Amino acid sequence: LTKFTKLCEFPMLETGLFFLLSWSAFLSAEAAGLTGIVAVLFCGVTQAHYTYNNLSPDSKMRTKQLFEFMNFLAENVIFCYMGLALFTFQNHIFNPLFIFGAFVAVFVARACNIYPLSFLLNLGRKQKIPRNFQHMMMFSGLRGAIAFALAIRETESQPKQMMFTTALLIVFFTVWVFGGGTTPMLTWLQIRL
């Protein structure tokens, strides 16, 4: 639509279509009984690479501002929702062994992704990813809003309630401890701020 039509003459329409097609990916996945969150993730990856580069300069600016604003709103809403869920969800199931195992599994899985993938990327790069950057990627990262959104979808059985409680605790721990420790960790790893 953006490449082979004259949509560039109508920047507002171009931005509107960009947004509506993104939303349609979510709605289509949900209607098919799939996860709309993951559909939006892949839609965003694809659109950032293909669609965004074919927008007119006006539309690029408008689209970027629109999605930055929506990102800001969504981030605030999801973290407010998580805060409320911690205190208002009636069926929390705290299993210390499961929570500890989940923490360990998350960190091991993260390490098994960061270090081998960085090694593979460094094989073909002129500018290598330094070890201290790899440690920082291991320390920081996604804080789990998607994990929270997926876990809260189904909480009718006890195992799902335990999974939801565990996901919520992991998200809060990583937000407060790792999110709050980002600046000291950058200083300790001698990464310029």
Automatic annotation (TrEMBL):
Parts of the chain that traverse the membrane: 20-45, 66-87, 93-112, 133-152, 164-189
The protein's location, in the record's own words, is: Membrane
One GO term under biological process is: regulation of intracellular pH
For molecular function, the Gene Ontology terms on record are: potassium:proton antiporter activity; sodium:proton antiporter activity
Superkingdom of this entry's organism? Eukaryota
Q: How does it sit in the membrane?
A: Multi-pass membrane protein
A Pfam family (short name) is: Na_H_Exchanger
UniProt keywords (A-Z) are: Ion transport, Membrane, Sodium, Sodium transport, Transmembrane, Transmembrane helix, Transport
Q: Does the keyword Transferase apply?
A: no
InterPro entries this protein is in? Cation/H_exchanger_CPA1 (IPR018422), Cation/H_exchanger_TM (IPR006153)
| Gene Ontology cellular component annotations, sorted alphabetically | plasma membrane; recycling endosome
Q: What region holds the Cation/H+ exchanger transmembrane domain?
A: 4-188
Instruction: Tell me the PANTHER family matching this sequence.
Output: SODIUM/HYDROGEN EXCHANGER, SODIUM_HYDROGEN EXCHANGER 9
What protein name is recorded for this chain?
Answer: Sodium/hydrogen exchanger 9
